[in-house]
Amino acid sequence: MNYKLVFSVSQSLLLARWKQTLVAAIGVTFSITMFITLLSFMSGLNDLLDGLILNRTPHIRLYNEILPSKKQPIEKDEHYKKQYNFISSVKPKSERLEIYNNASIIKTLKKDARVLGVAPRITAQVFYNVGSIDLTGVINGVDVEAENRLFSFKDYVTNGNFIDLKNIPNSIILGKGAAQKMLANIGDVIQVTTVKGERMQLKVVGFFQSGLQDIDNIQSYSSINTTQKLLGESNSYVTDIQIKLKDILLAPQLSKEYANIFDVEAIDIQTANSQFETGSSVRSLISYAVGITLLIVAGFGIYNILNMMIYEKMDSIAILKATGFSGKDVNWIFITIALSIGIFGGILGLLFGFGVSSLIDQIPFNTAALPTIKTYPINYNPKFYMIGGIFSIVTTYFAGYFPSRKASKIDPVIIIRGK
Amino acid sequence: MVGPQTPIAVIGDAKHFILEMQVDEYDILKIKKGLPVVVTFDSYRDQVFEAKISKINPIMNERSKTFLVEAEFVKQPETLYPNINFEASIVITTKSNALLIPRAYLYKDSIAIKSNGDSVKVKTGLKDYQKIEILSGINATDELIKP
Hints:
The complex is a heterodimer. Chain A has helices at residues 3-16, 18-54, 73-76, 78-81, 102-111, 144-151, 153-156, 164-167, 176-182, 213-218, 224-231, 251-262, 269-272, 274-312, 314-322, 327-362, 382-408, 412-418, and strands at 60-63, 115-130, 133-142, 157-160, 171-175, 189-194, 199-208, 219-223, 240-245, 265-268. By secondary structure, chain A is of the alpha+beta class. Chain A has a six-stranded mixed beta barrel with strand order 2-3-8-5-7-6, surrounded by four helices. Chain B is an all-beta fold.
């Protein structure tokens, strides 16, 4: 087969009807552009929504919970073990919220190759005292640097500098909602009371905004040392150990393992936030479906145009065949036409898709709920461009394949005799 | 710092300990002096100790709605310290040869269906979420079907 000749025949056929060719190419370009834009935007949005929760949630959290003992004393006794015991009014055990032996747990976790990082935390119930009114709240005592490294703490501190929390003793970063209620400004000193009645003055060094109103109204951050002082506990007091893993998918399995080894309660992110996984996977499924539909529609457009072309060029095909072109050659001529529309339109589509996505990326998107976001979110994942490119070639190939098969079967004798 | 309210020392018998338990007002009527108590300690993991109810303080704590009940060890553990935490089960009654069936096999907690289709009214005693005690109506040789 003479590829050069096949190529030049298809080129002249394409250019003879350049308007039609252009329409077909625009169809592919448009659909690829939309496919790229839609997927980039949708997955950008997905990442944003997931990030709202997932960035700040530890993959595994170790904690103690006040629970009734799994085995009541009577079930451990040799004498009563054999019989059936009806136990009434089981009460929870008076357990400490502190994680026993936490320093060595943290040390062990840091050595674990699967763990990206560990951050201890203390949760303390408090009242913010505003004049004669008490507002309920929660102070999270955090290791400021670890919290920032693992859970991008800095991004959520909207005013003030997060590192002041570590450098200034007895400081607090207030939730935005709580600060508004208290009319507190940076530099002010507020008073908090713990559940046990201890009072403490704390200096406001920043505001924290998570985007979740309920959290911002209640939660505040302080350093671990300040919180230990506030609670009147020793400096080994830690109520939560937050773990970030290298592979998030290992979380359910590892949380069971850690719960066993360290004899604490452990919860993994998949169990704690299963709704987010489901939501984002359904959203990306929908955007893929829409994108692929667009491409298939464009494929049908090419199919129609080629079909028309074959009817119009019936005579030319007959002459080509009469001059010695085989059916296979004719087949290749039309597939080349279709593929060149597909590749050309596809490349343009990818470029336009990138253009439109970066345009959307510039559109300002300011919302009080999401302090870190300034413009619409876009995910420039090369995966989408790969899928778009491959799909444009595959659909145009099939759009060309069926008409070309018809063309290759034309018998030149019948056509020429019919004239 | 030692204030006027702070004790300087606590005097007590280091060899003789009593167990103080708080019993809900719902359950206080079942508690009698002399009932056996099974005790576990956080410090003695997986070891079980026996004790006996020695005293029921008749004044209810109004804030917690509980009664203070004291117990004495039958055999005291070797080392003990004041104010440590423990968990206890008080044994109210023990019955031998009681007839227990899974609770799901009773319709409305009172009617059992035998394998031949007859429904029988039964008298029940103790129950929890899984099992129920049968006092009369059926015996251990009867075959039941799930309603």
